[in-house]
Amino acid sequence: MAVLRLGFVSVYLSAPMLDGFATGASCTILTVQAKYLLGLKIPRHQGYGTVVVTWINIFKNIHKTNFCDLITSAICITVLVAGKEIQDRYKDRLKIPLPTELVVVAVATIVSHFADLNGQFSSSISGAIPTGFVPPKVPSFELMPRLAYDAIPLAVISFAFTVSLSEMFAKKNGYTVKPNQEMIAIGFCNIIPSFFHSFTTSAALAKTMVKDSTGCQTQVSSVVSALVVLLVLLFFAPFFYALQKCVLACIIIVSLRGALRKFLDVPKQWRESKIEAIVWLVTMSSTALISVELGLAIGVVFSMICVVAQTQNPKVSLLGQIEQTNDFEDMEEYDNLSPVPK
Fold first, then answer.
1. Element (H, E) at 329
2. Are 240 and 231 contacting, i.e. CB atoms less than 8 angstroms apart?
3. pLDDT band at 214 (very low <50, low <70, confident <90, very high)
4. How far is 62 from 66, CA to CA, in rounded Å?
5. DSSP character for 62?
6. pLDDT of residue 285
7. Gap between the Cα atoms of 278 and 303, Å rounded
8. Phi first, then psi: what are they for 330, rounded to 5°?
9. Do 246 and 69 meet the contact criterion of CB atoms below 8 Å apart?
10. Tell me, what's the pLDDT at 282?
């Protein structure tokens, strides 16, 4: 995308479309994680309609709920939400972010280990986590035809989120963003780590906001974060053997609060701009009810159609001069205006 200079596509990624996409994707993530909150063993649905099919399966198997996981989930979500609310309310007074997630993981692991929740109540736990590094290996080119369909929307989504976040913080801190340069950066962040079995990389809103709020300005902060992850990979991973999967699901679900809160903004958005509200609703619904990939495509196309439709009926006003002034107003909305000759 960078070689082909496709940075101009950022023009078509409108704010309502991106917000709708983020909310729809959050609904999908919440749905996928919901089974862990209840301790249900439901196969993950692949294809269209993941949200609908998964919730149907959850309600069909609701009688198999593991009450140990359910109680753990309720406690963890309460603590995590309380921590987030305190963080938001007193963020000006707090010098560093509250490590709520870290405390929850540590306490939950200790309790699960000494109470033997897996043996006593059949609670689902993380199990053995391998430590160390996997040796570098050339990616399997035979897999590319099977991955191409998923890779294209991943690339577009990564670019969309990265550029939108970049522009948000660029406006706040007074610098400019070059979309094609961002594409090159994201590309290298994924091509080079592909030899080391790494996950797909993109910008992260929560981490970016935390770093910005604590005064980070350079990549040194990322080096510190990487060193902490390195310690976990090399030494601390075995300590998380007894960690319940529902605890990890709780952390993921609570992190979606920002995107899910967008539902509360719909009435206000409808009053301010019905077109933008409809774009949000269409993108969110298609992303949640059909699939993430198709939802993104539908959102972009529908947003462009709305722009084209609006340009077909532009508002044209004939202005008249207010007597004895240099001001002009719409002739249809005001009386006693003097039309300008010709």
1. strand 328-330
2. no
3. low
4. 9
5. G
6. 92
7. 9
8. -70, 125
9. yes
10. 93
